[in-house]
Amino acid sequence: MTGDHYFTAEPTTAARPREVGFSVAGRDYTLASASGVFSADRLDPGTAVLFRKADLPAADVAGALLDIGCGFGPITCVLATTAPSATVWAVDVNQRARDLTAANAARVGAADRVRVVAPDDVPADISFAQIWSNPPIHIGKAELHNLLRRWLPRLAPDGLAWLVVARHLGGDSLHRWLVEQGWQVERHASQKGFRVLRVTR
């Protein structure tokens, strides 16, 4: 066991490349992955539920979309292919994850519309039409709340956010906390122990 986590900025474990395949909305994806990033061996079950239950962006959605905690890039790549007029900002503290997401954006033909950056490198003047995240619950409740306080206010006035959180990891308490913060929150779906939350102003 090492001290690395998927939220480690510079993983020291050997990368051990692999590929992860999955299908969303009738399209097959095969993305590069590696050890030291979130859910390196498969599409995370929560992300799979998010893809099945959330409303993927329409093809005519434009502007900026945000993937918080992009990992190796499954959400980023799906957003970029379903919304070809949008620019997707993929944010992760993990350098290896960012490198993989950039490579996978090229794999799906969206390198010109994906911006893969560290959190501090997102320009302050950008607001997002949509925010998507399978948030990093294991950073702890306080850090998770700080993360959401940082990014959700970047939603455009008519924007929306989609979050997926395991019920046993605090999905319902997160729902309540978001409401306490003044957000409009709908439990859009539940499946396989996960809550899919739709968040608006």
Molecular structure report:
The protein has helices at residues 45-53, 74-82, 95-107, 141-151, 171-180, and strands at residues 17-24, 27-34, 63-68, 86-91, 114-117, 128-133, 155-166, 184-191, 194-200. With 201 residues, the protein is α/β, with parallel strands linked by helices. A hairpin with a 2-residue loop joins strand 1 and strand 2. It is globular. The N and C termini lie far apart (42 Å).
Brief characterization of the structure:
This protein is an alpha/beta fold. Helix content is 26%, strand content 32%.
SSE diagram, text form:
Blueprint: E1 17-24, E2 27-34, H1 45-53, E3 63-68, H2 74-82, E4 86-91, H3 95-107, E5 114-117, E6 128-133, H4 141-151, E7 155-166, H5 171-180, E8 184-191, E9 194-200
Parallel strand pairs: 3-4, 3-6, 4-5, 6-7
Antiparallel strand pairs: 1-2, 7-9, 8-9
Task: Give keywords.
9 strands, 7-stranded mixed beta sheet, 201 residues, 32% strand, globular, alpha/beta
**What's the Cα radius of gyration?**
16 Å
Classify the secondary structure makeup into a structural class. alpha/beta
**What topology, given as strand order, has the largest sheet?**
5-4-3-6-7-9-8
Q: Number of DSSP strands?
A: 9
Helix content: 25-40%
Helix count, DSSP H or I runs of 4 or more residues: 5
Query: Mean of the pLDDT scores?
Result: 94
The oligomeric state of the chains shown is single chain
Give the biggest beta sheet. Answer: 7 strands, mixed
Spell out the helices and strands N to C.
EEHEHEHEEHEHEE
Question: Which percent band covers the strand fraction?
Answer: 25-35%
Low-confidence stretches: none
